[in-house]
Amino acid sequence: MRRWTWAAPDWEPHSRGRERATGVPCPAGAPAPSQADEEDPIDTAEVDPLDSASVMNAKETLFELLGRAGVFRDEAEELIALVEAGAVADARSEAGRAEGVPDEKGEPYAVGWRDGARAVGDELAHIAGRALERAIGAGTPAPAGDAARGHHPVGRVDVERAKVAVTPLSLAFGDVSALDPEVSDEVLTAALGTMSVVERVGYAGRLEQFTESHRERLTRLYARYGPRSRIAVHGRYSLLHSPTSIAVLERLTAAPLALRTEWEHAELPPAWLDGLGTAWLASEAPPG
What we know:
Layout lengths: L15 H7 L12 H5 L12 H17 L4 H24 L10 H30 L7 H5 L7 H15 L10 H12 L4 H5 L1 H11 L1 H11 L18 H11 L1 H10 L4 H13 L6
Helix pairs in contact: 3-4, 4-5, 7-8, 7-10, 7-12, 8-12, 8-13, 12-14
């Protein structure tokens, strides 16, 4: 049996590369490692991590996890479809910001480049639209009572998404809500009831725009009537102690009549809506 010699004097010069790469001395007489052996690259040319089976596996895993958290299958499907639609829309935006036509290619090449980019963008828009339809169930008839008021019923996912949107926005002006969570759900349901299904999908963005556009006024409003003021939580200004007030204020400015209709339908206290409207008007300008 051949015995390897590990003593330093028996190492051959060409073995030092392997020693450096692995930390283990190379036996005398062993072949020297090539550059490719040292780097050991992984060939990913034939590996597609986004093949349909792997993507479906990820979706099913997410369904399982959401189900264990108490999210129903149809609600999970809606959320995932919205994320898919948003991902395609983001891809379209990225394609639109892609590097322009190389100047040296000439005008005919530039025309073809722009036409191709436009075609890709249009197709991505169609794909995003179809994904959105899957998410919101385009064409699904509303129950008779909701159809009479001109909208689809507000679902639990709609309310939860609105909560996620309003909570961080409201915390910029006040503290954690002291309002009953069940009442907060009813208030958000009334606010969302003034919108179409498509408008609800984009409501988080609308709330951010509203907050940014009226930041100074909102700061005055919450300073005078909000959680950090001397106004008690119980009374006509109660909503200003809740994150839902951001949503109600946005609806008061965008669809006041529709909001009052939904408010009455939900049998919420009229004084809350009137108090919020009064406070909003009073905060229009800084005190003289």
